[in-house]
Amino acid sequence: MAGVLEGVRVLDFGRYIAGPYCATLLAEFGAEVIRIEKREGSEDRFVAPVGENGEGALFLQVNRNKKCVTLDPMKPEGQEVMRRLIATADVVVANLPPQTLRAMKLDYESLKAIKPDIILTTATAFGGPGPWSDRVGFDAVGQVMSGSVYMTGAGDPPYRAAVNWVDFGTALHCAFGTLAALIERGKSGRGQVVEGALLATALSFTNATLIEQAIIKVNRVPTGNLGQTAAPADIYRTKDGWVLCQVTGHPLFKRWARLMGEEEVWLKDPRFADDISRGNNGAVISERMARWCAERTTQEAVDTLGQAMIPTGPVLSPQQALDHPHIRAAGFMQDVDYPGLPKPAPVTRAAVRLSETPGEIAHRAPTLGEHTNLVLAELGYDEAEIAALRRGGIV
């Protein structure tokens, strides 16, 4: 089955996550994505190495379904190759600072001069306009400036999340924006710039906390895993591990009180009348839940809570996540071979399913420069010209 984005060509100049994962999502639903990479391999190829040539786990995840062309775009011959590529493209993805885009002639005005209806999808650290617009940054910068890190852990020290949720969230926003721009181009014939920013993503994810602070000046402080606006909401020790229980809304709280066998205790006390009151008295409710969990194994706790339709989940190590029966049965991951790996890599599929035009992982991530000859030949370069480009250090 052809992908819904079949016929769309994307040039991916992205690095690390925000740009590359945006392009990956487009590729998973049928777009042809060509990754443009440094001749020696871009730095994001080697993060958390797992392959015999140093290819990293992150690269395998966020570059599947792509072709790879190596290119030095700062040399005149490289600029000519790039111009030919851009002339064939619908979208250019480049999560690079504005000054770098200009130096590489990947700014929107330069692209439009080659392809008037081109879509440029960018992502920067801080967005703009503003005094920090030209600064660079990674995922954690968005985390610390959004209020999220301040509210995480016990406060001394503050903790950032170990997963790059700001990067991946920015990639999702950029992919959504790119699809919207493609729809608009189909109506009007116009290209445009799609701009994401790590800080904008982080602020959007923490926005409810910021709204609460702006309106009622609650001045919250971190409380570890204990929820602040509902209860029970915490991570509890069991006989053999840990389990999360998260109750929000009065119907769920009534189920929890019934499960405890103490409806009279919890449902008639004004301290527990609504979510915010329960959050304000969360330590009292959590103490009861902690005693309940301590009497059970993790499996017993999550099964009992799950059957009572109370949101719950076990705290899993990475290996336990790989082995969990639901994660395996649901097919969230696909085993993908890659040259030099001792075993296939479990790569997550796009976390959204379309019933009629589903995405698919059709190809592994590319080896360095794997498709250079193929793509250059499509652009009209013959074998002798390609060989000359290689001798000249262009590709």
From TrEMBL:
Keywords: Transferase. One of its GO terms (molecular function) is transferase activity. It comes from the Bacteria. Pfam families: CoA_transf_3. This is Formyl-CoA transferase. It comes from Bradyrhizobium nanningense.
